[in-house]
Amino acid sequence: MTGHERRTIWVHTPGAARELDRLAFAEFGLASIVLMEHAALAVAHAVEASARRVRVRGVVSVCGTGNNGGDGLAAVRLLANRGFRCAVALPAGEPGTADARANMKAVAAMGLPVFRGDRAIRSAMDEVGGGCVVIDALLGTGLSRDAGGALLAAIRELVGLQATGVPVVAVDCPSGMDAETGAARPEAVVATQTVTFGAVKSGFLEARAWPHLGVLIVGDLGVPRELVERLGTRAEAPAGLVVADWSGV
Predict the structure, then answer these.
(1) pLDDT at 230 over 70
(2) How many whole angstroms separate alpha carbon 14 and alpha carbon 140?
(3) Per-residue pLDDT averaged across 130-138, rounded?
(4) Does residue 162 contact residue 136 with C-beta atoms inside 8 Å?
(5) What does DSSP say about strands 233-236 and 8-12: parallel, antiparallel, or unpaired?
(6) Beta partners for 157?
(7) Residue 236 pairs with which residues in a beta bridge?
(8) Count of CA atoms in the C-beta half-sphere (13 A) of 138
């Protein structure tokens, strides 16, 4: 189904998205790592489809320290199981949440190469060799202030890669974008595709967000539909928002 055939969507603010995670456990017993695995499955599917289109078999997952980074670690684990040449870049530090650390432990046990520091992204790309798809799992919707330092440098590097034709798949929200307002703070990743979860984020309705989002995919977190709808609002989809699959939105 295409955007021309369906014109209304469910929308979550970043606050509602956080509440979705909390209530999924409080009301339905769904642990956060279960939601992370569903998110990773959606990302892995999008990356695999993108890789097939451009005929590459390499994947570099650029991961931050929070649960967005955990999604990227889980996704690269799944993609390695599907036969992709995979590497992880940690330009801004080690995973800091329990779920992200659990997936980092699994990635390490699988022997996947992990690179750290200011050359992490380039080293990871050299490791997989040839063409690749890059996963932006730096920040997601968790951005609360302007990115700086190593994070800003990594965002700029991802923008440069996409400009040279490297497909970039953003996890939940392009890093550097304010998911509530759609503004870049102060710069944001320019994604080829964005895989968001549960519902469209409120900032994605703003025209200034669209060049950063690329094609939008709404992934299923595995939470009851009633919860997604309870925390969301119905809205008309703006004509400039390109959504690849409206099912479940």
Answers:
(1) yes
(2) 10
(3) 96
(4) no
(5) antiparallel
(6) none
(7) 8
(8) 30
CB count, 10 Å around CB of 240?
Answer: 13
Separation in Å, CA 67 to CA 97, 99, 221: 6, 7, 14
Q: Which one, of 215, 169, 160, 168, lies nearest residue 187 by Cα?
A: 160
First to last CA, the chain: 11
The pair of structure tokens assigned to 131 is 């063409």
Burial class (CB in 10 A: 0-12, 13-18, 19+), 55: exposed
User: Among candidates 70, 75, 138, which has minimal Cα distance to 99?
Assistant: 70
Task: Please name which of 246, 232, 167, 180 lies closest in space to residue 208, comparing C-alpha atoms.
Answer: 180
Enter the tokens of residue 7. 């014109």
Q: Is the pLDDT of residue 238 over 70?
A: yes
Q: Residue 87 in contact with residue 127, Cβ under 8 Å?
A: yes
Bridge partners, residue 218, by sequence: 196
Report d(CA 51, CA 45) in Å as an integer: 10
Distance CA 245, CA 73 (A): 24
Contact 94, 104 (CB under 8 A): yes
Per-residue pLDDT of 84-113, as tens digits, reads 999 999 999 999 999 999 999 999 999 999
Domains of the chain (ranges plus CATH)? 8-245 (3.40.50.10260)
Concatenated DSSP letters of 42-77: HHHHHHHHHHHHHT--EEEEEE-SSHHHHHHHHHHH
**Phi and psi at residue 84, in whole multiples of 5°?**
-80, 150
Other C-beta atoms closer than 10 Å to the C-beta of 54 total 13
CB–CB of 59/84 below 8 Å? yes
In a 3-state reduction of DSSP, which class is residue 115?
strand
